[in-house]
Write a structure and sequence with these properties.
The strands form seven sheets. Strands 2-1-27-26 form a four-stranded antiparallel sheet, with no helix packed on it. The chain has a four-stranded antiparallel sheet with strand order 3-4-5-6, with no helix packed on it. A four-stranded antiparallel sheet has the order 7-8-9-10, with no helix packed on it. It is built from one helix and 27 strands. By secondary structure, it is mainly β. It comes from Candidatus Sungiibacteriota bacterium. This is Photosynthesis system II assembly factor Ycf48/Hcf136-like domain-containing protein.
Length: 366
């Protein structure tokens, strides 16, 4: 073997060794199996979905797309909806990026694509309800093709059928409620319609037409006959008989300056109402007849409370966000602890796991 050949062989071996020892590990770390490559370390993600498994002390981003490169951290999120029968399953409702599902408490996400494209991948998904007795039966409120629509799937999102659309363009369907006792679906529309179907969307009945549009519909977990609807102006209407008669309880909020602006409503298992708003946080333990302001450790009107979550199993446990700040309470808001947020972006959505009370979810977005 000539000296030249020996030098060439030695050089090739040296370069291969250098690649294997120095370069290859960086390549493998840049594209971990099953996770997207974003050009940034996962810990640097400052927006999107985050999960805490220790009650809010530490957080991890949960934005990886299953079997694909990229992530969903920059999606505009309308809602984060838990499956009523399986806490491991979450649904992400986005503004302009369709519907996404995770079956691993947010570890991996996949888009919901039906074969006929009835649910468009660019849909603005506003609300969702899952039949607790049949987890493959979903009802999804979307805004697509300039109109609000309600879609139904009976096979877990493989195919969809449109069962309702708003009579007028530019109006949305903003909320859904599945009444498990009656097996019926109630929808709230931007045209002020509260409608109900008992045959999976084949026929509809008018519960009531309201003078203003409807943006929220809540049912009392302790008494499913008690419903609340909210309008864009912040008005609140209440019924104790599934829509037979209604009471306007809006005046009970008037003493709280800013309580009609940027409302975020939720209700706990005992029927206590909570509302975040530009004022801050208010609650009602008497079906909206009166409201009181829990002593949140920020002054009223200082920062808007943009998200509130209640523990599905533990009465009195709530978490609330004001801008990027995060607070928790175990006594219905009488006292609070400061939780550590994962980023400086405003927190817009909160969720407490129905099975693991120490598991929390939040969405932070500019």
């Amino acid at each position: 073997m000539s000296l030249r050949t020996t030098v060439i062989i030695f050089s090739v071996v040296f370069l291969l060794g250098l690649f294997a020892i120095v370069i290859l590990p960086f390549v493998l770390r840049a594209r971990p199996l099953g996770r997207p490559s974003t050009g940034a370390a996962p810990g640097r993600i400052t927006q999107g979905i985050f999960r805490s498994d220790d009650g809010g002390s530490t957080w991890e981003p949960k934005a990886w797309i299953e079997s694909a490169v990229g992530n969903i951290s920059e999606f505009s999120v309308n809602r984060l909806v838990p499956d009523p029968s399986n806490p491991e399953t979450l649904y992400l409702l986005t503004d302009g990026n369709g519907l996404w599902v995770s079956r691993s408490r947010g570890d991996l996400w996949a888009p919901v694509h039906d074969r006929a494209a009835v649910l468009e991948p660019t849909a603005n998904v506003l609300a969702m309800a899952v039949n607790p007795s049949d987890r493959r039966e979903w009802y999804v409120a979307v805004f697509q093709q300039n109109r609000g629509r309600v879609l139904r799937t009976s096979d877990g999102g493989e195919t969809f059928r449109e069962i309702y659309f708003t009579p007028g363009e530019r109006y949305g369907v903003f909320d859904l409620y599945y009444d498990r006792l009656r097996g019926s679906l109630v929808i709230a529309t931007g045209q002020g319609g509260l409608l109900e179907t008992s045959d999976r969307g084949l026929t509809w009945r008018v519960v009531r037409w309201f003078a203003d549009g409807l943006v929220r519909l809540l049912a009392d977990p302790s008494n499913p006959a008690n419903w609340y609807v909210m309008t864009p102006r912040g008005s609140i209407f209440r019924t104790f008989d599934r829509g037979g008669t209604w009471t306007d309880v809006t005046d009970s909020l008037r003493e709280f300056s800013g309580a009609f602006s940027r409302q975020y409503w939720t209700i706990d298992r005992s029927g206590t109402l909570f509302a975040g708003s530009r004022y801050g946080l208010v609650r009602s333990s008497d079906n909206g007849t009166t409201f009181a302001a829990p002593p949140l450790i920020i002054p009223p009107d200082a920062l808007p409370v943009r998200a509130v979550a209640v523990d599905p199993r533990v009465p009195g446990r709530i978490i609330a966000s004001a801008a990027s700040q995060l607070y928790g309470s175990v006594d219905g808001g009488a006292s609070w602890i400061i939780l550590t947020p994962p980023s400086e972006n405003p927190i817009t959505h909160l969720l407490i796991d129905a099975e693991k009370s120490q598991t929390l979810y939040l969405v932070a977005q500019p």
